[in-house]
Write a structure and sequence with these properties.
Layout lengths: L7 E5 L5 E5 L5 E5 L3 H5 L1 H6 L1 E7 L3 H9 L4 E4 L5 E7 L3 H20 L13 H28 L4 E5 L6 H8 L5 E4 L7 H4 L4 H11 L4 E4 L2 H15 L2 E3 L4 E4 L2 E7 L6 H8 L2 H11 L5 E8 L6 H14 L7 E8 L6 H21 L7 E5 L3 H10 L2 E4 L9 H8 L5 E5 L5 H4 L4 E3 L4 H12 L3 H17 L2 H11 L10
Parallel strand pairs: 1-4, 1-7, 4-6, 7-8, 8-9, 9-12, 13-14, 13-16, 14-15, 16-17, 17-18
Antiparallel strand pairs: 2-3, 5-6, 10-11, 11-12
Helix pairs in contact: 4-5, 5-6, 8-9, 11-14, 12-13, 12-17, 14-15
Length: 491
């Protein structure tokens, strides 16, 4: 199926492409959505007739939702029109859905973040948040989908991520013949890890996803784990040759199609005045070598261990004192959730400790910035000698693809073997175990001392791969998966 063959699609995600607010004068303003998902789905809006259903996240979002009965027209950044429907959930239900189930439970489970000796404690509060929050919010999304289908039939409904595991089942029950797809952007853990959740929760999650016609993941590894856990938990039958599952008399395709970025967008960003200004500010305090990490302040990103690995490197290489800096440009994330607030405090403590140990007049070994400043991040992408991506687990990790595109110093990528991007880029990166801080320290040294010809060869290969396997190619693969006659894509 060609991307140029226009389809009518309903795209469903918790966070939408825009949010609404009031400015200082009380006028309504539109803020374009950030995050990888909104950016990635922009091409769907450009080439297909899209109705996008998302949560009303702000007070002004809820006001907009109240003004419209169903979807209303909006315009994407490239001028493409689409319809937007904002779902105004009950505030308490949404809090339980998002701040009790989705992030502290599902996100932590799917990134292997629990210390099982201590957590989780599956108590009445979690069961209540599930039944009174996660379930009704998913049902609310499903009702919005069926109402839009009543207004105008669609070729397919395209769900996204861990917030919406139950919604496909609710839609399937209401509209048995509609074509449903679900893309999971986070890792899928092995079957045994799902057994931390009570039986009814883990069964509902797998049953909900298997109400889809196709389920997508970023890697073969996550796809394999899903197929095995579906077999173990709900009795689905695995067809490894066809990369599909049999369940309740239906055949569900399971694809591994890693998302990507739009190279032209980063080429344009790199030359923008905002990025050039930020680059001049970074250059003014640049030492001989720069190690860069750009992350959200999420425990899965492994920032504290990265600082400890850098400390071990400085211990072993006194000759590099005053000659190197670790720039940590971090975007604050989910600070209303206690585990995230505690982790950002741990990041700050660790940076202060390492700096107190090694700093000298005129040299601070860790430059820590906790701010949502994307132009600064892109400027830093252009200027690193080493890019450190040591995530504990990551569904993909777009930083590993974005930064090499615009880097001007033949920077070396250090990449966790548990980042989804490793499946594509591992041959050209220095692979590290995210728990082995001594090996990460050794990788930092190897990257900083790598011969220039090898550095150039590695980053050239990464750039070529990302430019060939770009965002448009990923969108084509998703559209192909929505074709009832398609064969599962193999990677």
């Amino acid at each position: 199926m060609s991307r140029r063959e226009r389809l009518k699609l309903i795209v469903v995600s918790n966070r939408g492409p825009v949010s609404y607010a009031r400015d200082a004068d009380g006028e309504r303003v539109v803020r374009r959505g950030g995050g990888g998902l909104a950016t990635a789905l922009r091409s769907l809006v450009a080439y297909h007739d899209v109705t996008w259903i998302a949560s009303a996240m702000t007070d002004e979002d809820r006001a907009v939702a109240a003004e419209h009965d169903g979807a209303f027209e909006d315009v994407g950044r490239d001028g493409a029109a689409y319809d937007l429907r904002l779902v105004a959930h009950d505030a308490q239900e949404y809090d339980w859905f998002y701040n009790v189930v989705s992030n502290p439970v599902l996100w932590f489970l799917q990134h292997y973040l629990w210390d099982l000796v201590q957590q989780p404690n599956v108590d009445h509060a979690l069961h209540h948040a599930w039944s009174e929050g996660y379930v009704p919010v998913n049902r609310g999304f499903a009702e919005a989908v069926t109402e839009e289908l009543d207004r105008q039939p669609a070729d397919a409904v395209f769900f996204h991520d861990y917030h919406l595991y139950l919604a496909p089942r609710f839609v399937r029950e209401a509209r048995p013949d509609v074509r449903l797809a679900h893309f999971v952007h986070v890792p899928w853990p092995e079957a045994d890890y799902w057994h931390v959740l009570p039986l009814e929760l883990r069964r509902a999650i797998h049953d909900g996803l298997l109400a889809s016609d196709s389920v997508g993941f970023h890697t073969r590894r996550w796809r394999r784990n899903f197929m095995r856990s579906a077999e173990d938990i709900v009795g689905a039958s695995c067809d490894w040759t066809r990369e599909s599952l049999g369940y309740e008399g239906r055949r569900i395709s399971v694809a591994a199609t890693p998302i990507s970025v739009e190279p032209a967008e980063f080429d344009e960003l790199a030359a923008s005045e905002a990025v050039l200004d930020a680059g001049r500010a970074l250059e003014a305090r640049r030492p001989e070598k720069v190690i860069l990490r750009v992350d959200r302040t999420d425990p899965s990103k492994n920032i504290v261990r990265g600082f400890r690995a850098y400390e071990l490197y400085l211990e072993a290489h006194a000759e590099m004192h005053r000659c190197v800096v670790l720039r940590a440009l971090l975007d604050p994330s989910r600070q209303e959730i206690p585990q995230y607030a505690e982790y950002i405090a741990a990041i700050q403590r660790e940076a202060r400790r390492v700096n107190a140990r090694f700093q000298q007049e005129g040299w601070m070994p860790i430059e820590l910035s906790v701010d949502d400043d994307f132009p600064q991040s892109v400027a830093a992408y252009k200027d690193y000698d080493v890019l450190l991506v040591n995530a504990i687990f990551d569904g993909l990790n777009l930083v590993a693809k974005e930064a090499p595109l615009v880097n001007e110093r033949n920077g070396v990528l250090i990449l966790s073997e548990n980042a989804g991007a490793h499946e594509e880029l591992g041959d050209w990166a220095l692979t590290v175990n995210p728990f082995d801080v001594s090996a990460q320290a050794e990788a930092i040294h190897a990257a900083l001392t790598m011969p220039e010809a090898e550095r150039q060869s590695r980053i050239h290969a990464i750039r070529s791969w990302v430019r060939e396997h770009d965002l448009a190619a990923w969108v084509d693969e998703q559209v192909a998966a929505l074709d009832p006659g398609h064969a599962p894509l193999r990677r």
